Amino acid sequence: MIAPTRHTQLPMNAPSAPAAHELDSALTLLFACGTGLAVATLYYNQPMLAVIGADLGASPRALGLIPTLTQLGYALGIALLAPLGDRHDRRQVIVLKALALVVALLATAHAPSLPLLGAASLAVGVFATLAQDIVPAAAALAPAARRGRVVGQVMMGLLLGILLSRVISGAVAARYGWRVMFDGAAVSIALLAGVAARRLPSMAPTTTLRYRALLGSLAVLWRRHPPLRAAAWAQGLLMLAFGAFWSTLAIALHAAPFHLGSAAAGAYGLAGAAGALAAPLAGRVADRRGPGAVTQLGTALVTLSFAALLLVGRAPPHAALWLIGIASVGFDLGIQASLVAHQTIIYALDADARSRVNAVLIFAMFVGMASGSALGSALFGAAGWNAVAALATLAAGGAFAVRWSARTGTDAG
After folding, report:
1. Does some domain include residue 17?
2. Which is the most buried residue in 198, 216, 259, 348, by most CB within 10 A?
3. Is residue 347 part of a domain?
4. Residue 324 domain-assigned (yes or no)
């Protein structure tokens, strides 16, 4: 374990001391599983929205608030809590957040009304940010020459958690009900808290900034690092498109002409899970060729995939279902490759502020996703699927434009 060091103020761009704990394959696997279980709690509700609506008597427009509040909670948790990973032992932060997340999931499982479910969903989002304490911890322990690969491996766990969460929750809700799903999620996070307390190494803080100054340093980092701004804008736009798609898919499949249940909506997570294989590959390519090229290719693929969804309304139902599945593979692959490359970029900017630069990136992502959920639900209710697909295509195209405009910079940007 890494022994805590005496707390001294470190310059924001000072080099970190080398990690004393070896990042072996078992610890990398724990990091990957931990991020996957934590981030999955954000997405369990999406395939279950139609089931939740039937149980609580909520309209499709009101149901759109549930994933929106969860994602806004995540954005708030990133902004207000994630920077603490630079100020305190990350192991302690991870364990405490996991315990708080257990309480929030139990409150969600037993919420008797839509307003209380919304409040509990907001709390789930806030404390699920423990996933974004785990990723910087892995980056801090990884040797510089392998950092892209390690981040890619951990992110594969996180991204599989995102995608497979929909498969699991859709199937469980169809057979046992949505409340059982959230009770089971609480059990999984309680187990994670126990394993993390025993197996994660202690990690010495890299700053002694007080909390207010720690939050203020986020704005300093934003102004100081143009590559951070480009990464945040591009990934935020990609996640706006992602949020618009997933917040409306279950409702669209439940309606005519498909008339499919929550299990079918969740099954599209299996199609997208194939894209998670891009994470370690993107990390290796970023180590060898530079992450800038990976972001350009990733954003281009996402744009093309969402553009293909504009054809869904014109295709026969059977063909439309296949088209949605193929597009899901494409945009998930592109989003995940872009995210790994963006994290490789930002972790190289300031070794002693990895939690904070990661907080800026993830905050932008979940503001984008929450905006996409809200806009997608409103557009779906007003104009149908084509309006959602058009929004997603425009947002992804904007992300590609951001990365294209940065092409003359270095590979770090």
Report:
1. no
2. 348
3. yes
4. yes
CA distance 295 to 312: 27
Sign of the C-alpha dihedral, residues 64, 69, 75, 78?
negative
Range of the domain at 120: 25-405
Q: What's the 3-state SS for the chain? A: CCCCCCCCCCCCCCCCCCCCCCCCHHHHHHHHHHHHHHHHCCCCCCCCHHHHHHHHCCCHHHHCHHHHHHHHHHHHHHHHCCCHHHHCCHHHHHHHHHHHHHHHHHHHHCCCCHHHHHHHHHHHHHHHHHHHHHHHHHHHHCCHHHHHHHHHHHHHHHHHHHHHHHHHHHHHHHHHCHHHHHHHHHHHHHHHHHHHHHHCCCCCCCCCCCHHHHHHHHHHHHHHCHHHHHHHHHHHHHHHHHHHHHHHHHHHHHCCCCCCCHHHHHHHHHHHHHHHHHHHHHHHHHHHHCHHHHHHHHHHHHHHHHHHHHHHHHCCHHHHHHHHHHHHHHHHHHHHHHHHHHHHHHHCCCHHHHHHHHHHHHHHHHHHHHHHHHHHHHHHHHHCHHHHHHHHHHHHHHHHHHHHHCCCCCCCC
| Dist CA 72 CA 125 (whole Å) | 7
Q: Specify the pLDDT at position 190.
A: 96
Asked whether the predicted pLDDT for residue 186 surpasses 60, the reply is yes
Mean pLDDT (whole number) for 371-378: 89
Q: What is the pLDDT of residue 202?
A: 82
pLDDT digits (tens, 9 = 90+) for 248-303: 887 788 777 777 776 776 677 676 666 666 666 766 776 777 788 889 989 999 99
Domain total for the chain?
1
What does the pLDDT read at residue 18? 39
The amino acid at 376: G
Q: Is 4 a domain residue?
A: no
| 337 alpha-carbon distance from chain centroid | 13
> CATH number of the domain that 70 lies in?
1.20.1250.20
